[in-house]
Specification:
The chain is α+β, with helices and mostly antiparallel strands. The chain folds into 3 domains: about 5-85, Rossmann fold, CATH 3.40.50.20; about 95-115 and about 180-295, ATP-grasp fold, B domain (D-amino Acid Aminotransferase, Chain A, domain 1, 2-Layer Sandwich), CATH 3.30.470; about 115-175, Dna Ligase, domain 1, CATH 3.30.1490. The protein is built from 10 helices and 12 strands. The strands form 3 sheets. Strands 10-9-8-11-12 form a 5-stranded antiparallel sheet. Strands 4-7-5-6 form a 4-stranded antiparallel sheet. The two termini are about 30 Å apart. It binds adenosine-5'-diphosphate and magnesium ion (MG).
């Protein structure tokens, strides 16, 4: 173990809706980094983050936060101000990726197919169908399927739960045509796609519980899809990573609708700039599939860290 290895401050927790997931990601990444010989100081992030970082004085920050503040460019901006190199995407890419509407506009510009949709006031969405069901209602800027609702054919109107503050939806929500079929995801590491995984949820709709519960969904790697779809998913993920100006590791989510024809249609949902690194996570699995161990993956992320917006 080298004594010259960097001192890493690992940021986790925070106060977003995804606090719990981040704590698990943080715990595992800290273990992986220590295994690689880094000195790691874990910081459960609060409003005094700048002060904490000044005390810890790390060489580099490993950002294991998810959701608002940690994933949307805010913490990245603070790290720029403090001039501490950090893992994952910079300020701009993080902020755009978190805003599903703006990210989709950029994806479409470079020829990536996204789900047809719109952003509307939650109050209006509650009153009547603004789109022909089936459609999906989700936050414009959240993650981890917090508050994703499916409005099925025959439903009179969107579910009452949409108004529940616990759903975490803002004044404005995103409506998208429901894309039937299968769920695919692609990790991009430093601009290169690692592979395609199919997520086969045991629940009928891929929700928060099935995503994070141990054994909640089956991961099929490599995904059993036609070769051309596999290649297309990789290329589109790399293109999305590039057009947003992502860094480090990110993960693109897709729907693949092969319910009416084969090959079917590939539709990109989003790119996650702070993908989960929990025991059931997709990124470490795809890295392992490529022969990159978990400690090697987190080491690569630390060595890739920078301050570049
Ligand atoms: N247009 C859509 N059609 C079908 N399923 C969708 C659609 N949008 C979202 N979903 C489902 O909800 C999940 C979460 O949506 P996503 O856009 O990836 O947001 P996040 O992961 O940030 O919560 C997806 O993985 C998918 O299972
Ligand atoms: Mg997603």
């Amino acid at each position: 173990m080298s004594e010259t290895k960097k001192h890493v401050a690992l940021l986790c927790g925070g106060w977003s809706a995804e606090r719990e997931v981040s704590l698990v990601t943080g715990r595992d990444c800290a273990a992986g980094l220590r295994e690689s010989g880094y000195k790691v100081t874990e910081i459960d992030v609060g409003h005094d983050l700048a002060e904490r970082l000044r005390q810890v004085a790390p060489d580099v920050v490993f950002n294991a936060l998810h959701g608002q503040w940690g994933e949307d460019g805010c913490v990245q901006g603070l790290l720029e101000v403090l001039e501490i190199p950090y893992t994952h995407s910079g300020v701009l890419a993080s902020a755009i990726a978190m805003d599903k509407e703006r990210a989709k506009a950029l994806f479409e510009k470079v020829g990536i197919t996204c789900a047809i949709g719109m952003v509307a006031k939650r109050d209006d969405v509650m009153k009547s169908h603004l789109m022909e069901p089936p459609y999906v209602i989700k936050p414009v800027n959240q993650g981890s399927s917090v508050g994703v609702f499916l409005v099925r054919k025959g439903d009179n109107r969107p579910p009452e739960a949409l108004d529940d503050p616990k759903a975490g939806l803002g004044e404005e929500v995103m409506l998208e045509r429901f894309i039937a079929g299968r769920e695919l995801t692609v990790t991009v590491m430093g601009g290169t796609a690692l592979g395609v995984t199919e997520i086969d949820p045991k629940a009928s709709f891929y929700d928060y519980d099935s995503k994070y519960a141990e054994g909640g969904s089956a991961h099929i790697l490599p995904a059993e899809v036609p070769e051309e779809i596999f290649v297309q998913a990789c290329l589109q993920s790399e293109r999305a990573f590039e057009v947003l100006g992502c860094r480090g590791v990110a993960r693109a989510d897709f729907r693949y609708d092969d319910t009416t024809k084969s090959p079917g249609d590939l539709v990109m949902l989003e790119i996650n700039t702070q993908p989960g690194m929990t025991p059931t996570s997709l990124v470490p699995e795809q890295a392992a599939f490529k022969g990159i161990s978990f400690p090697d993956l987190v080491s690569w992320m630390v060595e890739d860290a920078s301050c570049q917006r």
